[in-house]
Amino acid sequence: MRETTGRRHLSGPALGIGTIGVLAVIALIMPLRLLVPSGANDVTTIDFDDGVITEGVNEPREQDPRPALRVAVGAMNSPRATRGQYADLLRVVADSVDRRALLAQRKTYAEINDMLEQKQVDLAFVCTAPYVLGKKKFGMEILAVPVTQDQKVYYSYILAHIESSARSLDDLRGKVFAFTDPQSNTGCLVPKYMLLLRGETP
After folding, report:
1. Whole-model pTM over 0.70
2. What is the distance between the alpha carbons of residues 72 and 116, in angstroms, rounded to a whole number?
3. Kind of pairing between the strands at 123-126 and 68-74
4. What does the angle CA 34 – CA 38 – CA 43 come to, to the nearest 5 degrees?
5. Could you read off the pLDDT of 99-128 as tens digits, one per residue?
6. Cβ pair 133, 113 in contact under 8 A
7. What count of other Cβ atoms lies within 10 Å of the Cβ of residue 38?
8. What is the enclosing helix (H) or strand (E) of 4?
9. Segment 165-178, tens digit of pLDDT
């Protein structure tokens, strides 16, 4: 068990079946090469209205006439934070194929998969379970898999308040438990599996 400010990490399994995320390609296969990223542009607030949400990462179109590379990200943080975290990477990827990057964000992994299936975006950063579902449904393909600390595995943590008496998942019986995205491997599927092993259901 590890403690962080205001939170306690209860035990969770390592996931050898997945990766932190996968870069899935539905309409574009392209080579990647390492480039030195330029500085991030000013952040623009994104409104989650109907339709594909796109925000320029490079210069505005009138200053960058190259064709757009439409990249979707299933935000695990706020839209503003996600844009800031991904801007340089998207610019590097787009520049490597001589395109300008456009960022599309949605609230859920399912929406990102739908955008890929409908070819509203060219590629996306997705989680493990959405990749498996997309592969089965419409042939989603992996372009790149992240490696963190020389590993392709990652971990699921159950978080409890630091003042909680809970020391294991069993101690949370009868308590209110919050899951993340329904298609999240670590934030939903693994906790449900852990409950199943205990004869419990969400």
Report:
1. no
2. 8
3. parallel
4. 125
5. 999 999 888 999 999 999 999 999 999 988
6. yes
7. 12
8. strand 2-4
9. 999 889 988 888 88
